[in-house]
Amino acid sequence: METNYARIWSKARAYLAEKLPKDIFDRWIAVIDAHALEGDTLILTVANDFYQSWLEENYLPLIRQAMASVCSREFNIVFRVDAGRTVPVAAARMEAAEERPALKAKTDSVLNPKYTFEHFVVGPSNSFAHAAALAVAQSPAIAYNPLFLYGGSGLGKTHLMQAIGQYVSHQHARSRIFYTSCEAFFNDYVESLQRKTTIQFRRKYRTIDVLLIDDVHFLAGKESMQEEFFHTFNALYENRKQIVLTCDRPVNEIRGLEQRLMTRFQWGQMTQLEQPDMETRMAILCKKQEEMKLKLPNELLLFIAEHIRSNIRSLEGALIRVTSYASLLGRTPSMDIVENQLRDILDQEKQRDITMESIQRIVAEQYDIRLGDMTSKQRPQAIAFPRQVAMYLCRDLTNHSLPAIGEAFGRNHATVMHACALINNRMKTDAELRQTLAVLRQRLSR
Ligand code: ADP
Ligand code: MG
Question: What is the whole-number distance in angstroms between the Cα of residue 269 and the centre of ligand 2?
Answer without folding.
Answer: 18
